[in-house]
Fold each of these.
Amino acid sequence: MVKPFIPQLVYVEPGALEYPLGQELVHKFEQMGIEIRQTTSHNQIRNLPGDNDFQRYRIAKSTFVLGVRKTLKFDTSKPSAEYAIPLVTGCMGHCHYCYLQTTMGSKPYIRTYVNLEDIFDAADKYMQERAPEFTRFEASCTSDIVGVDHLTHTLKKTIEHFGKSEFGKLRFVTKFAHVDHLLDANHQGRTRFRFSVNADFIIKNFEPGTSSLGERIEAAAKVANAGYPLGFIIAPIYLHEGWQEGYTEMFQNLAGLLPDSARKDLTFEMIQHRFTKPAKRVIQQNYPMTKLELEESKRKWKWGRYGIGKYVYTDSEQVEINHTLGSLINTYFPEATIEYFT
C-alpha cells in the first residue's frame, strides 16, 4: 500500500505565517523533523538537492510549499464544474501522462494555500452571482488534493464550508485511498467525491506512487457509506493490447466491491488519453523509460485550450471507446449517470 505523503523539504513564503494554517503546518513539520526553508517566492526556489535534472525533479515532487493565494479570480473548469477552486497545486504522484507535466513546468513541487478564508470568500461571491442556480467548484484541477489533505485538512474545511452553503457544490477526484479523516466531515451531500479508476495495465505502467485500484475501490466504499455522492472518472482511457478485457475486468471489480449505498447516485466521466507536443517532450525527459505511446501519426490533431493543439484518438477509435465503456457502465451500473465523454 502507498504510504501517505510526507514531504522531504518544506518552503515557507512571505505572509504564510500570518495565517493560522501556516503557523499550524510549520509547527507540525518542525515536530516531524522536516527541514524548513524560507523563500521570497515560490518562483525563487533554487538549488534543490540532486546531482542531475532527473534527481532534482523527483525531489521537487516531494517538496512542499506553504503559500498565499493572491489571485482570487477563479479559472473556469468545464465540463466538470463552473469554476476551479484553488487550494493546492502540484502532485506527489508520478503519472507519466499527467497534464501537470507541462503546466507545472520545471517546478513540480506541491504548493498549498494557507489563506483559506480569502478563497472561501471569493467562492461565496461566485455563488451569489449565479444564485439561485447551483455553482459547482472543482478542487482537483491542479493537484490531487486528497494526497496531501491528511497533513493540511484544507479539503476537509472546504467540504464543510460548502456543506453550510446554500447554492454551492464541491467536486474533486483522487487516485489516493487516504480518506479516513474525511469520513466524518459535515458535507450535507453537497460534495461529490470522485475516484480516478483505470484498467490494471494503465495503473501498473503509468501511475507509480498512487494507490492500487483495489485500494481506491475500498476507499470509495468507505466514502459511499459516509453518505457522500460518489463518482468515478475513467481517465485517461488508453488503448492497449487487450484494452476491452482490461476495462471489463475493472468494471467487474468495481461492481463486486461497491456497496449498494454507492449505486443510488453514481456518476461516470470518461476522458480519453491526449497529449501535446510540449507534454511529450517533458514526459520523455522525466520518464525516459516510459511505455506510453506518444506517436503523433497515430492520432488526430485537435485544437486545445489556449491555442495549444493536442493529439487525441481518431474518430473511429473514439466511437469504439465511447460505445465499449458506455455499454460496460450500462451493464454493471444501469442506474448511473454518464456525465460526458471527451
Note: The CA atoms of residues 143 and 327 lie 30 Å apart.
Amino acid sequence: MRALKLAVLALALAAGPLQAQAPAPPAAMVDPDAALVEELVVTGRLPGPAWWTVSDADTTVHVLGVPSLAPKRMQWDRAIFEKRLSGANAVILPFTNIRAKTSGILGAGFNLLRLRSGGPFENRLDPATRTRFVAVRSRLGHDARHYPTGNALAAGVQLAADYRERSELTTTDPAKLVELLARRAGVPVVEKTYDIGPLLGAIIRTSPQAGRICFDEVLAQAEAGPGVTLAAARAWAVGDVPGALENERTYERCLAAVPGGRQFDERMKADTAAAIASALKTPGHAIALVPLRPLLAERGVLDRLRGQGLKVTTPGEVVEEEASGSASSDAGGA
C-alpha cells in the first residue's frame, strides 16, 4: 500500500484511459492543448493573476486559470481572489485528483507490481543515454534501485516526480491554498476524483516506442532544470497570460501517449465545463480554478461554455468597481 500511495503521488496529474486501444507510436509527443483560442489569451488588467468570467442573467462564475506546474509556496496577490471569495456560493477546484478506489485496490496493486519489475531501468538504455540518466538521478539523490522497472513510460513518470520534488515544483499550488481559504471562510468546495487503477494498466499497454519518447523528453527537462517553469510562474502572478502559457508541458504530452489519454482529457474538460454551468444555476457568484491551457484551448473549458451560449469575459475587460476595490494585496502562499 505504501508503494501504491507513492505511485498515486507520482501520477498526480495523469489520468486513466476509457476504452481506447493503444495509438500508433508517435514521431514526437503532442500537446493535447497546443491550439489555443487566441481571443481568450488576454493579459490581465487587474492586480495579480488573470481572471475570466462566465455568466448568465443572474450568476457569474469567476474563473482563475492556474498553472499545471508551479513552485511550492508560490507568492501571488490574493486581493481580487479574497474579494470574490466573500459571499461566493462555491469554489470549484481543478478536476485533476486521482486515487485508487477501494474496489480496485487489488487490481491497481497488481499492475503496480508489474510496472515495478524488470529493472533497474538504466540497464536497458544505450550507453550515451545511460550516462545522462545516471548523472540526473545521482543529482536527484537516487540510486539505480529507485527505478526498478523495464517500462520506459513508468521510468519517465517516476523521473518527472523526482525532478519536480527536488526542484520544489508542485502540481497542487495555488489550488491547495485556495481550498484552505475557502474552507476557512465556510464556502462549499467542489472537487472530483478519478480512479488511478486503469491508468497503471494503460502504462503497461503503452507502446515501447511512445514510452521511450516520453522518457527522453522527461530526461531532457530534468537536465534543463526548472527555469522555464519559474519564469512562467512569475508571469502568471502578474496576469501575463502569454508568458504563463510558456510553462513546460512534458507531462501532458506524455499523458497523450497513454492509451485512452486523449479521451480522458476530453472527459476532464467536459466535467469541468459542466461544473461551471451547474454553478450558474444558483444566483450570485462562484469561483472556479482551471489549469490554464485546458481553460483556453480549442475545445477547452471556455470554448465549450461559449458554445452553450454563455457569456465569457476576458481578463482585458475590466469592471471599474473591481479595479477600485482591489487596493489591498495580501501576497502569499501556503
Note: Residues 261-279 form the longest helix (19 residues).
Amino acid sequence: MVPTAYPATRPRRLRSAAFSRELSRETRLAAGQLIQPLFIAEGPLCGPVASMPGQARLDLDQLVAECRALAALGVSAVAMFPVIPAELKNDTGSESLNPDGLIPRAIKRVKDACPELGVIVDIALDPYTSHGHDGILDEAGYVANDITVEALRKQAVVLARAGADVLAPSDMMDGRVGQIRAVLERDNRHNTMILSYAAKYASGFYGPFRDAVGSATALKGDKRTYQMDPANTDEALREVGMDIAEGADIVMVKPGMPYLDIIRRVKDEFRVPVAAYQVSGEYAMLKAAAQNGWLDEKKVVMESLLCFRRAGADMILSYFSKQAAAWLKDA
C-alpha cells in the first residue's frame, strides 16, 4: 500500500551513513577524560584481585610501569588506593599519617617517572582502620565526625607534601572539605586540588573494592550513618553545594551507572567539573557477563562510559580506563 503523504522530517536520514552519524554525534569520549584506579601493595599482599578479573594489587615497580603505559595511551590521571598489612591497622588509622607510608612513597615514584600524569589520592581512614570504617569510632561505635575530620586534615597535609596533585576526601564527614582546604592554604599548597566524593551513596556495589583493599572482613556494621541513602536525590544537591562552598574543585557522584540521574542533576544545578566513579561492582558485573559470553565487553564498556559523559560527567574513574583508552587509540 502506497502512503498518501510522506514525513517531511526523517530523523533516520542522519543515521544512514557513518559520516553523518559522526557529524551529528552529541557526546564524545576521549582517553583524556578517563582516570584509572590502581591498588598499591607490597610483598605478599600483591597479586590478582579475585573478584575483579584483570585487576591486581601492584608493587611500586609494577605501579610505575603501569603508569607509564597509561600515560602513553593518553589517560590523564590515576587514583591510588593502598592495601595495608593488618599489623599496621588500628582503631584510629594512624598509619595514614606516616610520611614514609605506602601512598607517600607511591606518589613520589609516580611523579618522578610520569610527571605529566595526574596523581589522585583518597583522603579517608578505612584502608588503615582495624574496624574498616572511614573514621574514628566513639565509645558507642558511632563514627565521630569532628575527631575524624582532624585526622583527615593531617592526612591531607602528608599526602600533599608527598606530591599528590589531587586530594579526594571519600569519607563523607560533614565539613571536611573546608577543613582540608584551609590547612592546604596555610601550608602554601594553593594549587593542590580537591576532588570531593560529594554524593557518595551507601551502596552494595562496593564489595569487590573492599575485597581488594582488605577492608571487607574487617568492617563492623555498615556505613549508612555517613554515606548517603540510595533513595535520596535532593540531599545529593545539598551535599554537593556544601562541598563547592567549602572549596572543592571537582565533585564526584559514586557509584556511577545506577546514579546517572544524580550526575545529571548535579551538572545542571552547579555547572562545575563533575566526576563519575564506575565502581568495582559495576566492573565485576560487566566482566563476569563478558567472560560468560553474555555480553560483548568492548561494546558494553564503551557504551557505559559514553553514558556517563552524556549524563554530564566531565571525567570518569573506571577500572576499564586502560582498556578503553587502547580501544579509542585503535579506533
Note: The chain has eleven helices and ten strands.
